[in-house]
Design a protein that fits this description.
1 helix, Immunoglobulin-like, four-stranded antiparallel sheet, mainly beta, disordered C terminus, rod-shaped, disordered N terminus, about 55% strand
């Protein structure tokens, strides 16, 4: 009989180890990464060869330390296996300390001939220190709900997970999550529409390695201000019997505003006219603005023009009206030139500077008299 042993590592298997009538097809260890206090199963599979002359009897299978005779578990009188059959024998134990554990699997078999043979196979298991840890977080993605996430950052599974949200003495709801493995997370959504701006405490309770643990986090439900469009930097110019309105439509809210339309609202004294009775601006992102131009015809006694702003924000349509005042202007006594300069039509009889025309005439007469006297004296000489 030739025995070949190749059993090392956390997940253990062997090449078939055969006698005349039987072989050991493999040894496996689960879980792959055991921790302190966790149950570890070493499963041994024993086959009877199809060419065997009869059944074999498994008298004993045991798991023990390789350095001494301390036995973790022993199973006796397992049963018999006929030719071509197999049997699996699970052996369980746990470890209180971390580190690499060197073990042996011992198998005692009675063969069809009545002879008893014993086999020993080494098993190496690397045990880690138990670490139970979770991270609980909450985020408010919209103005109506809060998503709570439990992440397993330990090295063991968590199960029987309960999540409860509370505000003071009020309980929002209790939700249940499925088991989580190390390095994974699960989320659930709570309705927090009625708790905007308030602090909500979320508590998570779960089981790990037979023990119940709790963790909590407090989250303030932030309210995101929706998009809001306002008219800014508005200027108005008269054009005959009408007015031209130039300005900006600014989004002063926290979300984008879509399908923005500004238009002159028709009243008894105001009427939208071509070419810009209304003006489509499309989407205005939060913190941005778009320029518009409107034209309207107004009555002589009109002191303001209503401008209607319609837009969609968070799937809701919003319509507001903003009144733009008309500043009083007067062109009496003033004529405009093509270059924008003015000519004064003054009927007061005064020249620029406030000098009466008669004063200018007297001055001219005196000047002529003085010149005439001077010329007369020069001729006499």
């Amino acid at each position: 009989m030739v025995v070949v042993i190749g059993v090392f590592g956390v997940t253990v298997s062997t090449a078939p180890i055969a006698s005349a009538n039987s072989n050991l097809s493999g040894i496996s260890v689960s879980p792959n990464d055991p921790v302190t206090g966790e149950q570890v199963t070493v499963e041994v599979e024993i086959n009877n060869l199809e060419s065997a002359s009869g059944p074999i009897s498994i008298e004993r299978v045991s798991l023990r330390k390789s350095s001494d005779l301390e036995t973790y578990q022993r199973v006796q009188e397992v049963g018999s296996v006929g030719p071509g059959g197999s049997i699996s024998v699970p052996l369980t134990t746990s470890f209180e300390t971390a580190g690499e554990k060197q073990l042996e699997v011992s198998v005692l078999i009675e063969e069809p001939s009545g002879a008893t043979r014993g086999y020993e196979y080494p098993v190496s298991i690397d045990v880690s220190e138990l670490r139970v840890r979770t991270d609980l977080s909450a985020t408010t993605a919209d103005n109506r709900s809060t998503t709570v996430t439990l992440e397993n950052v330990g090295n063991v599974n968590t199960s029987e997970i309960e999540l409860t949200g509370t505000v003071g003495d009020d309980t929002l709801d209790t939700r249940y999550l499925a088991e989580t493995e190390p390095g994974t997370s699960r989320s659930v959504t709570f309705d927090t529409d009625g708790y905007r701006g308030e602090a909500v405490t979320f508590n998570a309770s779960y089981v790990a390695e037979g023990e119940r643990y709790t963790t909590d986090t407090t989250h303030t439900v932030k309210y995101s201000v929706p998009g809001e469009v306002r008219l800014t930097s508005v200027e108005m110019k008269r054009t005959g019997s009408g007015v031209l309105i130039d300005g900006d439509a600014a989004n002063v809210g926290g979300t984008d505003a879509q399908s923005v339309l500004v238009s002159v609202e028709e009243t008894d004294s105001v009427r939208p006219v071509s070419p810009s009775g209304d003006y489509y601006l499309g989407t205005i992102e939060t913190g941005e603005f778009s320029t518009f131009e409107l034209t309207a015809e107004v009555g002589s006694e009109t002191d303001s023009i209503p401008v209607e702003v319609t837009y969609i924000v968070d799937t809701d349509q919003v319509t507001t009206t903003q009144r733009v005042p008309i500043e009083a202007t007067s062109n009496a006594g003033t004529g405009e030139n093509g270059d924008g300069s003015t000519e004064r039509n003054d009927s007061s009889g005064e020249l620029p500077g406030g000098i009466p025309p008669i004063a200018i005439g007297v001055g001219v007469a005196l000047l002529v008299a003085i010149i005439g006297v001077g010329l007369y004296r020069r001729r006499d000489t």
